[in-house]
Amino acid sequence: MILTYMEIRENKIKKASLEALSEAKRRADDLNEDSVAVFLGKELDNLAQEAFQYGASKVYLIENPLLEKYSSSLYTSALSEFIDEIKPKAVFFSATAMGKDLAPRVAAKLDVGVATDCTKTRAENSGLEVERPIFAGKALAAFQFKSEPQIASLRPNVFPLLEPLSEEGEVVKREVELSEDQAKEQVVEIKREEGDELDVTEAEVVISGGRGMKGPENFGLLKDIIALFPNAALGSSRSAVDAGWADHQHQVGQTGKTVSPNLYIAVGISGAIQHLAGMSSSKFIVAINKDPEAAIFKVADFGVVGDLFEVIPPLKKELEKFKE
Amino acid sequence: MNILVFVKRVPDSESKIEIDHDNNQIDMEGLNFVMNPYDEYAVEEALQIKESKGGTVHVISVGSEESVTILKKALAMGADEALLVQDDKHETYDGLRAAKIIAEVVKNKYSDYSLILFGKQSIDTDNSQVPSMVAGLLDLPQVNVVTELDIGGGSGTAGREIEGAVEKVEFSLPAVISAQKGLNEPRYETLKGIMAAKRKQVPVISLQELGIEESDLESKLELVNLSPPPTKEAGKKIEEEPEEAAKQLVKFLHEEAKII
User: What CATH architecture does domain A2-182 belong to?
Assistant: First the structure.
């Protein structure tokens, strides 16, 4: 059995969890195992159906009023107890903020290893072999597990979704005994960023500005372009963040976030090695820079040598024209 | 209030990473080593809390003798005490190994502390595992990827970065916190601090002295292969008038990238 932990935000399953579940189904088929999903929360009706569409043959719902809001320790108690009981061969998380917080604590509780932020999985020696970037992608490391369950968190935006299946499966409700004093920490509020912005790690298109943007006031130019793509987010180089032009949430690179969107547009970014590490696994890379020797062009599928302040306005016009 | 900060020595972010295939490890020859950048935020936060609330700041590193340099840096920034837990084993990429050592160090050496601070991940292994695992092993509250921290009497509130939002988390003390960029602006060492740090001895303790057997630390992950990332070929590069360049770019996005 491969168990996938399904993350819910605002009563919806995270896309990254559906990606992990899709990958679980592929590996479960290779290993002749079942793919099973588990949800934790207060009331979980209506969520199971979607899990069946992405390959789960069975869905466990672990309900308790105390699980309404996320708590690392409480979720760890509920989940590790469940895992200990059903003994899956492997457990997949998505490498989201929640997955990265929860998976290691669960692994420590079960005294097993965990591989974080994997970008590939395959069946090997009747178990899993996973590959993950280290040094922000400057090297790739492949691991096998010496303990079970084999726990891995999978990077969002990397694993393809299955074509939704029209299958049904068994829903099993589980009760779990928890007490309030087990919640050592508790989420009390979620403050959304202004304008409900998409995170760079979840976006299909990332448009990033660097030192060439010359100042925070010019990031509006990029936001105009972002508005023309569905699921696009604003990124930034480290130097633009350090200069205070963009919030660190947007930083892409070795001391920021690693992204792999379908399209990455680097605007006024020279391409320092630590930046390239964080974005070179993007499917398509476009660079706009006035320095023809800029390192960013070495990884760009399409490079425009030119002054961004001259290129962006006609680009906006052409994109708008295309939309019509 | 006593604060423990765990720091790690890593190659700096400008390092070019090469693989030593014969030994199945990263070639560390000639690289420039620094304190893990995220750990600097943890040290700074500890110093700021100490400055406002009193107490002591202990910095601890698990690693080779060379880690003394980053402990000295933390002392020069203003930390009170340092400890090197000597562990000469090559990187195993198994966060649980480091977490077990750290949990033992905390249990054996420190009885009175309110906070254990880490960087949110080390920029070499990129595991983001150790803080959560230590919290789990010591049965403490945890808040990771923290950009805001407010410590009160017996409890605290932290702002933690999640996708496109900040999660406000309440917790009791003692607690494990991992720092994210944005939490503060790490200070530079002062000359006076550097001189004082030079004179300070950094005590060294071995795993054996901590009562840890190598058999307790058996790696749960086996590194089977290291490889360079797929090389990306440079594609088309155009130097045209802006209007023409924009047209060609949109054509590329439509026909080749199929994004629009």
Answer: 3-Layer(aba) Sandwich (3.40)
